[in-house]
Automatic annotation (TrEMBL), chain A:
Residues 206-646 form the Myotubularin phosphatase domain. Pfam families: 3-PAP, Myotub-related. PROSITE patterns: PPASE_MYOTUBULARIN. One of its GO terms (cellular component) is cytoplasm. This is Myotubularin related protein 10. It comes from the Eukaryota. GO terms for biological process: phosphatidylinositol dephosphorylation. Belongs to the protein-tyrosine phosphatase family. Non-receptor class myotubularin subfamily. Residues 690-700 have a biased composition (Pro residues). InterPro entries: MTMR12-like_C, Myotubularin, Myotubularin-like_Pase_dom, PH-like_dom_sf, Prot-tyrosine_phosphatase-like. Residues 684-725 are annotated as: Disordered.
Automatic annotation (TrEMBL), chain B:
This is phosphatidylinositol-3,5-bisphosphate 3-phosphatase. Keywords: Cytoplasm, Hydrolase, Lipid metabolism, Membrane. One of its GO terms (molecular function) is phosphatidylinositol-3-phosphate phosphatase activity. GO terms for biological process: phosphatidylinositol dephosphorylation. Residues 1-36, 622-653 are annotated as: Disordered.
Length: 767, 653
């Protein structure tokens, strides 16, 4: 048992010992298949001679190997060393066939011959020997293993272990707590004390006053201050320790007001517009009798913080937007259509079924509502309060979208991460409950963060040069939610985070005063997951390239200026004609009034245009500055399904040698080439122009190059490499294997799965 | 919510002068400055895609005003090109100008202005609230004129709707006046010249282009490119006088081992005498795409020995396979019914080693109806709540899927199966043209270049007698004619779908495809006029009209995809799934200002290409400078750095 490894004293076993007691009743495989384990990772159960199904039609190419359940992941180790596939992002902590236990949505066992199937929960019995194991993953993969040649008892035990371990009884049992403790101690030597604060991480965490101060300065919110009344979570467990409030409100007032808010969440400053209007988020007032009074005081304070003393408007998100259950059920439906339903069956009325899921409708609703808020702040110069019952779900989505639209800073990689940190993690979004990491309360599960990422993708899709990062980054970020090794998505409130991390530090003998970002890093430390080279896939060449064009090089600026001149001189040539046009206009104006006035009421399409519609039309009638205010178009036709996220595992939907990545490839090469040229230019110019000890000009060193695809040499074929598919940097190979069980589409089976959780077999199977 | 209000007509070279083809050195054209190219690109795309119907009372259509006048000015320095502020094409004349006309814009309300009707276009200008508005509709695009009621305006106010072939229907209201000519009458005459014994405008158009588009396609040269003739196939002049088949081109590629007599017998056995001829030959396997019409089998299952032999020879010409696959584009049920009408399909028992496949594609009437439904979905208003379902209900994308699937099957048969294929439908000029040209586009990267695509269209569509005149109804007032059908639009849509899936594989861009479709209707160029090569010869089209390719090839950089890399030896199979097929909103829904396409990625890339070129120039300059400085001091020299990089530059910068 445990592959001969001794149980580490720190490992909390939450599986009854009897189940981990595997009898080695099968021959060891000819080849020794060793799992790749992380520090603190322990094999709990394993079975040999397992076939991983990679295609529904035939099993010829299916790899054989060992299936392992550890306290972190389900791992399949193929007999034959896999041919190194270039087509995949290689994860530093997870192998090609690994699935973290937290990523499991459902564990389904099937006995083909007996016609039985069962969704396995924690600590359950299984009265049949499974011939097949199907793992439905939260990242939409569907992975199938066949046990036709495996020892039936071992297979059964592995299945039970997987089911059991994927339902941890307690948050502290998530593998991150084991792993990061080990990692901290093992890498101690590498860390020089205090040399790089927070391990060199640039993303502000907003757990200290200085981060907020910087944000106040950056947005010139001079009438707002950092307030520390929630230090040690004295006021509210779901608020961060430091919050930003109007200067006119004293700590004492805030303490008093806090009594009237849900969860004592006093209003929270998010962001300031350059025009002085502020974005504030707030929970509901519990006591209706106090509501008016509290509202008035808060409103007055916010008004006082506005340089023009302009009014405050409130947007009650619960009234206008779908609730978390709606969002969850839309996601379940769209997932069903994309990955569960048989491919051919859903071809016919694809668009309608996407419509019916309502997922895009909800994405649109959030984008639209956020744009409305943008109108108030930008167009009407008023401060806005986002209000929601608890201020921990819809407010997170809307406040971050509003800021993404208004502030280009948040469209940089670091800016985006700080936005998530500020509006989600620190604002107390219940990641633990919404992700349902402990698989306890399905009612609380809702993919709000996923919805937010989809909204961001829609904006990115409409404004391809506006974001520093790519859709691959967003997808990888969504996947990271299901890897329990980072602190970002594990907790439901700042207080919970602090408490757990303090307990953790105590348990793991981590010295007091050590920075939690160092001993339990957030997901933003990407080097934990990916190599520097792979991280360049996060860089959007269009954004990087534009940056290169404007800021970096004096030469380029000159170039732009002169060209601009050429252009305006061209314009000048048209001046007389424009005048003529206007002259004619005046004539028309004098004649107006005859037919015009008579017809106008019946035909005018714009007569009841609202000021916000007018604002949007004005904005859309000007060329968009992708580095400025950005408003997404939100007609249904402007939204599309995020294919990389939803279809990346679907083999039938994968376009070989095609997809947007082929354009990305070409763009990356181009930007890389531009950067090489710029670097050369700098070298030529040198520190002392005039005397030139000629350097041998070459591009920037390869580890500093920002593009995944390097400029091609003349010998390279210009064609994008063969491994590029529309799923890149992911591969559908072996990651989505749906098959109907006895003529029942697996989707139908799954629909009712929750009801059958406690029954051994399906009703009709027992007949 | 519109962006950059449009004014240009979205077609016609006056939008975008071919101007200075030598502007690579920056001869004043905005095209090569970063800002300039950005704006220019925007303008083009917007002019092509965004409505002329927007703006008006709302927002000054600033950019387009520039664009319009800029291009018009550049177009002809001669002032005579302008009459009463109406820009005119060479050869264009004004017929009538009517003042105080009301344009009933479905998006921004009413606009009062002046309507000018020339022999090529309808030109409406209005100036209100400092905003200059132009609506420019070429007359060729008009399908029919409808009178509409204008409520409560008394007897002398009339309403007019121009139902257009390109998915829009602008409406006007005007007061009738004894002193002014009747708008409807004038429009009727010039929108439907053939019904009024007038020439099509293409015959009046006098533009001179530096490039002659009629030289793009030379059938013999194209067959030579394919490696023909060879021992099995010959380039035949048997149809040089169009006697064998009046809808086929004069040059045909047929098997070597067949006598003229046999061919004539085969012609009698094939509908409209459209015998099997070679369209394309695989450079390695020698497998071929052969096209023809249906065999005249009839209810009694007639046989034709020569026809059977003919197909046998075609199969034998390809040593790699002992099979021949026939793709009948039709629905099998229809093919069977066709027997009763003396048509039919090849019986597998009479033709040895032949495999027959039906591609189950509905006929031209179904396609027409589908596009008609699409117009209701996209114009003038869009039902936000049911947008996707409404698209589904038109079945348009389903037919696109069927077509692409059929073409992919054909391409795969050749590429993987190394088997020759015969493609036909009923007459072999509609679905057959769609399928063979799409399959060729998948198989042969040449057709994915700007030039090659023109050859493809000239060859598979124009020369092989797709009945453009009948399907489009050029200059003909009989709008209800059941011969009309959007088959060519469907083909271009399929090409667009492929270019979406392979954004780097096509040398031409979306603007090119839209421009081609706009001139399918405009009657400005001779390219798409008439039904067959024979007719075009008789009308002396090449001598008397200008080719669309003259216009395109005089300014290729505007129609070039900056992402393009040559997938030289790659067969491209589009993924034929609803998941990857999209409604081409920037074509079908372009008249709705709220459907503004997203910021085109191309614009950023073009800027970067320019930046790179500029940097390259600077590096070279400095290099020269440095080497002249150090020439004396150092004999040792690093290799020329400019050659270390070489992503091919496909755009003229």
């Amino acid at each position: 048992m445990f592959s001969g490894k001794p149980i580490k004293p720190t490992f909390k076993c939450y599986l009854p010992p009897v189940q981990t007691d595997v009898k080695k009743n099968i021959e060891p495989p000819i080849k020794k298949l060793d799992p790749k384990l992380l520090p603190g990772e322990i094999v709990v159960n394993e079975v040999n001679f397992v076939r991983k199904c990679i295609s529904a039609e035939s099993n010829q190419d299916d790899p054989w190997g060992k299936l392992i359940c550890t306290n972190f992941k389900v791992s399949f180790i193929p007999q034959e060393a896999p041919s190194k596939q270039k087509s995949q992002l290689s994860h530093l902590l997870l192998g090609e066939h690994d699935i973290p236990l937290t990523c499991l949505e459902q564990v389904v066992t099937v006995n083909d011959t007996k016609g039985k199937k069962k969704v396995l929960g924690s600590n359950q019995k299984l009265k049949f020997n499974p011939t097949e194991l199907i793992l439905y993953c939260k990242d939409l993969r569907i992975i199938r293993f066949c046990f036709d040649e495996a020892g039936p008892e071992s297979a059964r035990k592995v299945c039970l272990a997987i089911a059991h371990y994927s339902h941890p009884a307690d948050l502290q049992l998530l593998f991150g707590f084991e792993y990061q403790g080990r990692r901290y101690h093992e890498s101690k030597g590498e860390r020089v004390n205090g040399s790089t604060p927070r391990g060199g991480m640039q993303t502000p965490i907003f757990d200290r006053p200085s981060d907020w101060d910087r944000e106040i300065k950056r947005t010139s919110a001079s009438e707002w201050r950092v307030c520390s009344i929630n230090e040690s979570y004295a006021i509210s467990p779901s608020l961060p320790e430091y919050i930003v409030v109007p200067v006119s409100l004293a700590d004492q007032d805030l303490k008093q007001y806090s009594l009237y808010f849900t969860d004592r969440r006093i209003p929270l400053w998010c962001w300031n517009h350059p025009n002085g209007s502020a974005l504030v988020r707030m929970a509901c007032v519990v006591d209706p009798l106090q509501q008016r009074k509290i509202d008035q005081r808060i409103f007055t304070a916010i008004t006082k913080s506005h340089p023009q003393r302009s009014e405050v408007i409130r947007s009650d998100l619960d009234k206008y937007l779908p609730n978390i259950q709606d969002i969850q059920s839309a996601f379940v439906k769209v997932r069903q259509i994309c990955v569960l339903d048989p491919f051919e069956e859903s071809e016919e009325r694809w668009l309608s079924s996407i419509d019916n899921s309502r997922w895009l409708e909800y994405v649109r609703a959030f984008l639209k509502h956020s744009a409305e808020i943008v109108y108030y702040m930008e167009g009407k110069n008023v401060s806005v309060i986002l209000q929601e019952e608890e201020d921990r779900d819809l407010n997170c989505v809307v406040s971050s979208l509003v800021q993404l639209m208004l502030d280009p800073h948040y469209r940089s990689l670091i800016g985006f991460q700080s936005l998530v940190q500020k509006e989600w993690v620190m604002a107390g979004h219940r990641f633990l409950d919404r992700c349902n990491h402990l698989k306890k309360n399905y009612k609380e599960e809702s993919p709000l963060f996923m919805l937010f990422l989809d909204c961001v993708w829609q904006m990115m899709n409409q404004y391809p040069a506006a974001f520093e990062f790519t859709e691959a980054y967003l997808t990888v970020l969504s996947d990271s939610m299901w890897i329990p090794l980072f602190s970002t998505f594990l907790f439901s409130s700042p207080k919970q985070r602090t408490q757990h991390l303090m307990d953790f530090a105590k348990n793991k003998a981590i010295p007091q005063g050590e920075d939690q970002v160092v001993y339990f890093p957030p997901v933003w430390e990407w080097s934990q997951q990916f190599s520097i080279k792979d991280q360049t896939l996060f860089n959007n060449p269009m954004y990087v390239g534009k940056g290169a064009a404007c800021v970096q090089n004096g030469e380029v600026k000159t170039f732009k200026r002169t060209k601009q001149k050429t252009y305006s001189s061209t314009l000048r040539g048209t001046a007389p004609l424009m005048r003529n046009g206007l002259k004619e206009g005046e004539d028309t104006l004098t004649r107006r009034g005859s037919l015009m006035s008579e017809l106008k009421p019946e035909f005018s399409a714009v007569k009841d245009e609202s000021p916000s519609e007018r604002f949007f039309r004005d904005w859309f009638s000007r060329p968009a500055d992708q580095q400025g205010l950005l408003i997404p178009l939100s007609m249904p036709s402007h939204l599309s399904l995020w294919k990389l996220f939803f279809l990346r595992w679907v083999p039938e939907a994968c376009i070989p040698r095609g997809g947007p990545i082929t354009a990305y490839h070409k763009l990356s090469q181009l930007v890389d080439e531009i950067e090489i040229l710029q670097s050369k230019l700098r070298q030529y110019k040198g520190p002392s122009p005039g005397n030139t000890p000629l350097p041998s000009p070459s591009g920037p060193p390869s580890d500093q190059r920002r593009m995944y695809f390097k400029a091609s040499s003349p010998d390279d074929p210009p064609t994008p490499p063969d491994f590029l598919t529309s799923s890149f940097p992911f591969t559908p190979m072996g990651n989505l294997c749906r098959r109907s069980v006895y003529g029942t589409p697996i989707s139908k089976f799954l629909n009712g799965a929750r009801i059958w959780l406690s029954t051994e077999t399906l009703a009709n199977d027992t007949v | 919510m519109e962006k950059q209000a449009g004014a240009a007509d979205g077609a016609g070279p006056n939008r975008n002068p071919w101007g200075s083809p030598t502007n690579g050195s920056g001869a004043g054209d905005a095209g090569d400055s970063p800002t300039g190219s950005h704006v220019e690109w925007c303008k083009q795309l917007i002019a092509a895609t965004i409505s002329s119907q927007i703006s008006g009372s709302v927002q000054p259509d600033f950019v387009n005003r520039d664009n319009k006048n800029l291009s018009a000015l550049r177009y002809g320095a001669q002032v005579k090109m302008f009459q009463n502020q109406v820009p005119l094409l060479p050869g264009e004349t004004i017929n009538t100008t009517v003042k105080d006309v009301m344009y009933i814009c479905p998006f921004s309300g009413l606009l009062n202005g002046t309507l000018t009707i020339t022999d090529y276009k309808l030109y409406f200008t209005s100036v209100e609230k400092e905003s200059h508005f132009v609506l420019d509709v070429n007359l060729g695009v008009i399908s029919r004129l409808e009178t509409i009621s204008v409520p409560n305006q008394g007897e002398n106010t009339k309403g007019l709707e121009l139902v257009c072939k390109d998915m829009r229907s602008p409406r006007f209201a005007y007061k009738t006046d004894e002193s002014q000519p009747d708008i409807v009458e004038v429009l009727n005459k010039h929108a439907f010249p053939l019904s009024h014994s007038l020439p099509l405008f293409a015959f009046l158009y006098k533009e001179q282009f530096p490039v002659d588009g009629w030289k793009v396609f030379d059938a013999a040269a194209e067959y030579r490119r394919q490696g023909l003739p060879n021992e099995s196939w010959t380039i035949s002049k048997i149809n040089s006088t169009y006697e064998l088949c009046d809808t086929y081109p004069s040059i045909l590629v047929i098997p070597t081992n067949i006598t003229d007599d046999d061919i004539k017998r085969v012609a009698l056995f094939r509908a409209k005498h459209r015998i099997p001829v070679l369209s394309w030959i695989h450079p390695e396997s020698q497998a071929t795409i052969v096209r023809c019409s249906q065999p005249l089998v009839g209810p009694s299952d007639r046989r034709c020995k020569e026809d059977e032999h003919f197909l046998q020879i075609i199969m034998d010409a390809n040593a790699q396979s002992h099979k021949l696959t026939i793709f009948d584009a039709r629905q099998s049920s229809v093919a069977i019914t066709n027997k009763a009408k003396d048509g039919g399909y090849e019986s597998e028992s009479f033709y040895s080693n032949v495999e027959l496949n039906f591609l189950e594609i509905p006929n031209i009437h179904v396609m027409r109806e589908s596009l008609r439904k699409m117009k209701d979905v996209v114009y003038p208003t869009i039902d936000e709540a049911h947008w996707h379902s409404a698209i589904d209900q038109t079945h348009w994308l389903e037919y696109i899927r069927l077509l692409l699937a059929g073409a992919a099957k054909i391409a795969d048969k050749l590429e993987s199966g190394k088997t020759s294929v015969v493609v036909h439908c009923s007459d072999g000029w509609d679905r057959t043209a769609q399928l063979t040209s799409l399959a060729m586009l998948m198989l042969d990267s040449y057709y994915r270049t700007l030039r090659g695509f023109q050859v493809l269209v000239e060859k598979e569509w124009i020369s092989f007698g797709h009945k453009f005149s009948a399907r489009v109804g050029h200059g003909d007032e009989n709008h209800a004619n059941s011969e009309r059908s959007p088959l060519f639009i469907q083909f271009i849509d399929c090409v667009w779908q492929m270019s979406r899936q392979f954004p780097a594989a096509f040398e031409f861009n979306e603007l090119f495809l839209i421009t081609v479709l706009d001139h399918l209707y405009s009657c400005l160029f001779g390219t798409f006029l008439y039904n067959s090569e024979q007719e075009r010869m008789a009308k002396e089209v090449q001598a008397k009209t200008v080719s669309l390719w003259s216009y395109i090839n005089s300014q290729p950089e505007d129609f070039t995809n900056p992402f393009y890399v040559d997938y030289e030896n790659h067969v491209l199979y589009p993924l034929v799934s609803s998941r990857h097929l999209e409604l081409w909103t920037s074509y079908y829904a372009r008249w709705n200002p709220r459907m503004r396409p997203q910021v085109p990625v191309h614009q950023t890339l073009k800027e970067m290409l320019i930046l790179r070129a500029e940097l390259q120039r600077r590096v070279e300059e400095l290099q020269r400078e440095a080497s002249s400085h150090s020439l004396s001091s150092s004999s040792e020299h690093s290799p020329s750095p400019t050659h270390t990089t070489g992503t091919p530059l496909h755009t003229a910068v």
